[in-house]
Every structure is written in structure tokens, then in C-alpha cells.
Model the fold of this input.
Amino acid sequence: MILLLNDVDISDSLNKLGIDNICIYGMGVLGQYFYRALEDSNINVIACVDNNTKIKHSRVPIISASELDTVQEKIDYYIITSEFYYEQIRDEIVEKYSAKTILLDSLIEEMILMNHCYL
Done:
């Protein structure tokens, strides 16, 4: 599904959805791909959360979930990459921060529909 976004301006789509300052929650393959797609955009990736904080990116810190307090007030949306753990992560974030969350798959579907990109 991600490959369908080749003709979509991801940052423009996020801006239209009111998403400007994000945290990518989960830096596995999908999280890293999404981060690279946003690297030179006007979307501010405030932080990335992962259990493996040794993952390196040049412009953004990889933090553990326990460190979210240090950056939370700067974040508009948490983009959660794990479908399997989405509900658990969402519930923790909403309970602790009353923050907006979205599953990456759902966000991609919304961008595809918004930009009329179909198979």
C-alpha cells in the first residue's frame, strides 16, 4: 500500500489533515520508510519512539515511551506503525496525554482517498 504513494505529496496531504508536528511510534521497517519519506518535507518529526533507542537518524531522536514527557507538548499527532499493538499504544497515549493518534495504515488509506489514487 505504501508504494501507491509515489504520486502523492505526503507532506501536503498531512498538512490538509491538520497534521504538522508528529511523533512516529515504532521505527521498524514501516516507521523508517515513513520517516525517510518526510525527511525533506515541512512536516516536523518531533521524535520517534521505539523500544530499540539505538536506531540512528540524523535529525530526530529515537526515544523510549518513558521519555515522551520531554517532547509531548510539541506533538500534534502520534503516527503509530504497529497494527498489532495499535490499540494498546493508542490507549496509553490518549490516557496519559489526551493526544491524537492514528495508525499509519489508516493514514495512508486516507491520503490515497484524499488524492484519488486508486489501483
